[in-house]
Amino acid sequence: MREISLVDVAGLVGQELGISEWITVDQSMINLFADATLDHQFIHVDPERAAAESPFGGTIAHGFLTLSLLSAMNFESIPKIREQTMGINYGFDRVRFMSPVKPGSRVRGRFTLADSRFRGAGMLMTTYDVTVEIENEKKPALTANWITIVQFDPKDRPEDA
User: Most buried residue, 9, 22, 45, 138, by most Cβ within 10 Å?
Assistant: First the structure.
């Protein structure tokens, strides 16, 4: 895994920092997500009914399933900050579900660092422009601005920050 230092982060704003490996979203994953979230809408879990009654020609993954995969995609593809003691999700802005993810599709995340700023003595807030691509599709599954907080020991804060 690549590593960077806190002092490097500001210089990376505007740059693509990582692209994850492909993740296969199969019907089993969709069904497990439906069980975990209690969202058993037929367009997700009933292939026959979804083929007959939905505009998608079959089942599709929950948008929130695709969104939730960002954690794994991020962990695998974004450089680790050496001084980081913990990472925290702060939230999302402008989440858009652009195209449905059908069972058997492969998706991957693309992360561009859009902003970073220090908050308090031991926190760095980062914003990523995120796109989840569907293999062999022109439109992405989703786009979002993902805001995270990197916690670190205040003694490690760069002097000029």
Answer: 9
Tokens of 64: 């929130």
What CATH code is assigned to 3-156?
3.10.129.10
Q: 24 exposed, middle or buried (CB, 10 Å; 0-12, 13-18, 19+)?
A: exposed
Q: Which residue has the tokens 């999700």?
A: 89
Amino acid at position 62, single letter: H
pTM more than 0.70 = yes
Summarize pLDDT for 43-64 with one digit per residue, the tens. Answer: 999 999 999 999 999 999 999 9
How far CA 136 is from CA of 22, 68, 101, 106, 139, in Å, comes to: 12, 21, 12, 9, 9
The model's pLDDT over 76-106, given as tens digits with 9 standing for 90+, comes to: 999 999 999 999 999 999 999 999 999 999 9
